[in-house]
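Page 37, continued from 36.
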């Protein structure tokens, strides 16, 4: 059962004052508005991608008919993330791209990926053409930069086991972005914690911006999930043990699992109660769940 939140003071005590782990069911923007300034050390997250999934909630992000509306809604959420982040904090943001629909109003299911089925498709954005690559990750990144974030790195998540595509007029997409942003010009970044091997000779070097990480399916979730190996360097570089990490689009809770394994605390915000319950089961603690939607 989800516990109901009382007032703002109770939320602050539950999430911050007692430094408890928590999974909060509710809209990210609404929940973050209740969190005090300078709370989180780091944010690691992957918001819903634009026009690729229908999560069946009228408040969902990603189902906007306008690309500009999608970008603006993310800017508003991450403005609250920046407010609730400590001055030395960092944001690690994973986003994938998409192509214009070419006038199609729906998308059929895929045998290997039934969650692809959608009864809507957003129209082609102004200035783009059918079959254009939209450039969503960079549109969001530059909008966040304009809103005050420091854009520090565009890490490439290379997926060796990427999903095959039937296209014959372009390469198959096998990468996404993990952007590194900071709240301030000076910020916490533990470069030694994420150094990588150099030519197999035992020597270490500064981490490069291409990360080779396989995708990992999770049978309980009918949506894309973070592989832990993609989250680990973000947590290692951006936090110290026992610090508090935020994921405002928690999904099945992989960020929480990685935080647990690396001795960090976490707060996850998830719009859909069924996804939040999956995350709590994965961690073996249904008592982590709080319901902000009842306020």
């Amino acid at each position: 059962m989800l516990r109901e939140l009382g007032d703002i003071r109770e939320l602050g005590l539950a999430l911050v004052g007692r430094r408890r782990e928590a999974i909060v069911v509710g809209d990210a923007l609404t929940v973050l508005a209740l969190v005090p300034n300078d709370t989180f050390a780091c944010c690691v997250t992957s918001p819903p991608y634009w026009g690729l999934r229908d999560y069946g909630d009228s408040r969902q992000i990603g189902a906007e008919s306008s690309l500009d509306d999608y970008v603006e809604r993310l800017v508003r959420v991450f403005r609250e993330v920046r407010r609730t982040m400590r001055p030395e904090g960092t944001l690690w943001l994973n986003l994938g791209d998409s192509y214009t629909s070419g006038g199609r109003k729906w998308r059929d299911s895929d045998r290997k990926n039934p969650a692809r089925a959608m009864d809507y498709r957003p129209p082609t954005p102004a200035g783009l053409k059918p079959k254009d690559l939209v450039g969503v990750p960079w549109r969001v990144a530059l909008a966040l930069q304009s809103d005050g974030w420091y854009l520090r790195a565009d890490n490439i998540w290379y997926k060796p086991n990427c999903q095959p595509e039937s296209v014959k007029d372009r390469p198959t997409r096998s990468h996404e972005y993990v952007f590194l942003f900071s709240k301030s010009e000076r910020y916490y970044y533990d470069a030694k914690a994420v150094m990588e091997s150099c030519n197999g000779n035992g020597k270490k070097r500064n981490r490069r911006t291409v990360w080779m990480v396989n995708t990992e399916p999770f049978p309980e979730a009918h949506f894309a999930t973070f592989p832990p190996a993609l989250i680990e360097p973000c947590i290692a570089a951006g936090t110290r043990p026992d610090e508090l990490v935020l994921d405002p689009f928690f999904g099945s809770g992989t960020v929480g699992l990685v935080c647990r394994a690396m001795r960090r605390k976490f707060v996850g915000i998830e719009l859909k109660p069924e996804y939040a319950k999956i995350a709590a089961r994965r961690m073996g603690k249904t008592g982590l769940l709080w319901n902000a939607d009842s306020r």
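The two ends are 16 Å apart (CA to CA). Flag for discussion at group meeting. The domain at 39-241 is CATH 3.40.50.150 (Rossmann fold).
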